[in-house]
Amino acid sequence: MGYLILIFWLLVLPVCAGSLFQYHNGFDPGMRFVKGQFLLWAVFQLVTVPVILGGGTLETVMAFYLPPCFLLALLGLIFMIRRKEWTKIPFFSRGKREKSAKASAFTGGERIKTSAVMHGGREEFLLLFAVLALWLFQMGIVVTQAIYDGDDSFYMAVANLANTNGSLYQVNPYSMGSMELNYRYILAPFPVWVALLARVSGLHTLTVGHVALGISLISMSYLIYWQIGRELFEKKVSRLRFMLCLCLLYLWGNTSIHTAESFLITRSRQGKALVCGLVLPAFVGVLLHMGNALDQKEKISPQVWIYASCIMLTGCLGSAFGGAIVLLFWGGLNLMWLIAYRRIRSFGLAIVSALPAAAFSLLYLLQ
After folding, report:
1. pLDDT digits (tens, 9 = 90+) for 273-321
2. Is the model's pLDDT at 35 over the cut of 90?
């Protein structure tokens, strides 16, 4: 039962919350999951840091965090039903496609595929098979193999203390006794999120951190890179080639303990891995989308600014320094766009979207 609850929190709830955003590529459950998870992480950051500063417990965090989560998921579900987006799910839209195919054949549409198209289809199938096989191999390694990391003595200990007695950064995880609030850690409460998942599911903190989050966050990283591929390549076969190269880099990217691949594969339950493995790629993806829109002189949707703000808040959730790096990246690029495209309104929206994350960086600097 605990694993089913964890699947609900790590998959169903983000997909429902992500339905608040509009999509133009069909049902697209992958991006709903990614955007919904970033939205929930942003809410968690906004709720948890004030609770920690006020001396609250994990129970207090749950009291203030769970209602907004369920509300966002419910609203997303309502929006999806009102937009009739469930009809775009392949199972439900199969009949329409069959009718369209019959109409095309009746009106003299293409009946014979060329050899080039057939070759492209075979290549897509082989590439997709290779990507899925490598992904499954990585998931098997995450589940069956144990990886030691010295930082777990702090991060996982903080999460386990929060899960067992509710204390948030108030007990010394290395020995005994209480400790003062360290702003380097309390402004990036990712271990508290791990503790919350363990509390609601009833599973052990280490099971959630080492197994469940490894599967969830690595898979989420692949979905983010697939979105980057959409911005870079028009053809699906080119995106699959890109993903195959990425899978190989993940497998043999452990050339140093400081590479992004090493962090994501071996330390996915830590905030630093969240920043380098998910936040920065998602940030690159949304910047590519915005840059393409500016090049084509299109209006950037308000939902894109909200999504970018959620990514920046998630950077703060993972690491205080990571949030500052993302903000510097955001400010420098938007300043460049202001000079190049002269869109003052877009620059103003960029400042507004960065304000929530900037508040946490400013608080860190003041302390």
Report:
1. 899 889 999 999 999 999 888 888 888 888 999 999 999 999 999 988 8
2. yes
**Tokens 């007990």 identify what position?**
171
Alpha helix positions (H), the chain: 2-7, 13-18, 29-53, 58-82, 90-106, 115-144, 152-165, 183-186, 190-201, 205-207, 213-232, 236-251, 260-266, 271-274, 280-295, 302-318, 320-341, 344-366
pLDDT value, residue 191: 92
Mean pLDDT (the chain) is: 84
User: 17-32: per-residue pLDDT in tens?
Assistant: 998 887 766 667 888 9
| Per-residue pLDDT tens digits for 83-131 | 776 566 554 455 454 454 444 444 444 444 444 445 567 888 899 999 9
**Strand, helix or coil for residue 269:** coil
Residue 205 has pLDDT above 80, yes or no: yes
177-184's contacts with Cβ under 8 Å and 24+ in sequence apart are 181/52, 181/53, 183/320, 183/363, 183/364, 183/367, 184/320, 184/364
Contact 60, 47 (CB under 8 A): no
Radius of gyration of the chain (CA): 22
CB 226 within 8 A of CB 30: yes
> What is the rounded CA–CA span in Å between residue 365 and residue 18?
33
What secondary structure does DSSP assign to 136-158, as a single string?
A: HHHHHHHHH-----TTHHHHHHH
10 Å CB burial of residue 37 (0-12, 13-18, 19+) is buried
Is residue 222 within 8 Å of residue 282, measured between CB atoms? Answer: no
- Nearest CA-CA partner of 235 in 117, 75, 95, 101: 117
**Distance separating alpha carbons of residues 103 and 205, to the nearest angstrom:** 56
Residue recorded with tokens 């890109």: 242
